[in-house]
Amino acid sequence: MINVPTILWFDEEGRIARPNDVAFGSNDFKEMTGIDSELHLERLRAWVRGEGPAMTPEEARAAQTLPTAAEQEARAEFTLAWWLSQRGHAEDAEPHYVRAGELAPHDFTIRRGTMLIRGLDPMGEDFMKIVNEWTEAGNAFYRPIEPVSAS
Amino acid sequence: MPTLTLLHDGRVDEISVADLARPTISPEQVESLLGWELKPEGLCQGYMCIPVDQDDLVREDGLDLRVLADALQRPLVTEEKHAVASLGASHHDRAEALDSLDAPDFTLPDLAGNLHSLSDERGKKVLLVAYASW
To answer: Of chain B's two ends, which shows fewer C-beta atoms within 10 Å, N or C?
Structure first.
């Protein structure tokens, strides 16, 4: 699942200390997302203060989701579509946006992120349609590296 | 000769092609734009060479861009009407980069338009948060 919000921690040398993870800065959307922001914030504060670890390199590698050939093709389709959109060729861009979504249905940064420029509603029915398809197939819309309780 | 706009590696380059339906790229441009040199042993970058069927790759007017992309395991998508092609990154290269845990440098503007690069923050711990307002 490629989605926002996503967070990354980088150490002082610019290395990935914690790979992409789902975390919120506050509990404003806790009821909707089921994710309590406090666990991440506690970990983050401890790491910054030197009171707690990040991940080991092995843990960070294991937590990464490596890109597939289909995802990279989706990104190439998105790049082409965006270039066309920016030059006023919306009709010609559309099949490339659609193809990108077919290649990487789990990439909501492409599928939802392109809705506004395609004349679709990223907060309304168009969005809910793809979310429902995704979740009804048994997929989580937010999937943190480790389970986070919304208690 | 028509011009093809090639989107690749965060860049936009123009290449002259004889046939937009089957675009080619000169060996010199493959080297200068993509960093690969065509040698008898294959496509080479430093000491590393990828074997490639040169009968398929080499055409009268240059190297077949689609065969080249396949050899480099990079996705290539084209829009002939607007003479534009997008050459994506290889998933192997991306996986290798991620496995190194070395974050690629990037530069983004803040709300005031000031540019910030990750490399500006060496010596500090950095939290990157990506979200959307839609």
So the answer is: N
